[in-house]
Amino acid sequence: MTSKSTAARPESHLGHNMKPRQLTMMALGSAIGAGLFLGSGAGVHAAGPAVLVSYLVAGTLIILVMWALGEMAAANPNSGAFSVYAERALGKTAGATVGWLWWLQLVVVIAAEALGAAGLLFTVWPVIPVWALALIFMVAFTAINLTGVRNFGEFEFWFAILKVAAIVLFLAVGAALLLGILPDVASPGLANITSDFAPAGLGGIATALFVVIFAFGGTEIVAVAAAETEDPEHSVGRAVRTVLWRILIFYIGSVFVIAAVLPVTSGGLASPFAGVLDAARIPGAGTAITLVAVVALLSALNANLYGASRMAYSLADRGEAPRFLARLSGTGVPVIAVAVSVAFGFFATVLELLFPDRILPALFQLVGSTCLVVWGTALVSQLVLRRRADRDGTRLPLRMKGFPGLTVFGLVLLALIFAVGFSAESSRVQLLSTFVLVACIAGACRLGARLAARERQPK
Fold this sequence. Notes:
By secondary structure, this protein is mainly α. Helix content is 74%, strand content 0%.
């Protein structure tokens, strides 16, 4: 038995200036995005109040994934995160495949978030055209990412605080409305929940499950940010614990209020937070929550650009991408990786503006299920690496409780979600598209590795 810790920093030339408080708030903020502020209404519309079952299932899965990632990130803080862990557990091709898959997902989402934030802001401030607002957002957050991880972390810190404050206020107003203590406003009580809990049956719950799963996508970026955080052994654990209980409070609490106040047929589900506040007769509610949703989208844009650039840097640092992507600035920022990651976002944004509602939906059809592949890879990697560490007597700074039972339970949940997805026509096409994409990336990575090995051989 050895007491040696695995908490090493193989990428010591990256900056390590992110504060623990910034990582903790990023862990929370990354789980509170447009998927909650806007997408929760789609879940209620699909399943009715039974969407709470979908949130409990998805919430349980993401909690298990975060525990698994937290254990690996505390032991080995690396900007490649689950890509590096997959490489160590399953081989180089698996690691490179999941890294490129996640990078592609993020750069597509960057374009969608820029356009989404611009479109929302234009509805309340129709002064600057949507395309110009999207361009401004992309340029501004590229500049923030280029100035260093400390500035990125500080922006995410305040974005997260604003989102948390908005949800706390929403929960307070929702509770007052349901309890009937708002002046001159009748309480809807729990009639919407008790009268018809699952109007669309299991099919509705299954449809809502995929809406909810994608809302949780991106939470894994905390494992990427751990590489540039002070004292990752302790700060990662705090960040993971923050995600665990606050997801239950903020997500489940908010969706409960929405399902209780707004019937399945309500037009307010298009913007559910605004719909609840309108029912509570709060003046200016629609404008206020729209601005909060803009902040949520910009926060996600900022975080996803950071995550994409660090993943590209890690792939290059390991020889799985062109070496120039690993070039760093004086402040430890992978500037070319940032530029390449945002370039795809600029390109996709221009295409979407030229061909509205055609480009981004096609891209999302490919990458929409990638979070499930990433989560599954993370759970399998943790299962392998934890057994290896226990066998070798390696001390782990953070240990996932209930191992291996909870890890296996997470994989069973994931398998059930895939089974549910293949049973529905809408999600079946998306899952098949993602599997084809994974196979193509894996084949390209394998071929690239063989060509690189051939070039290294003596002539």
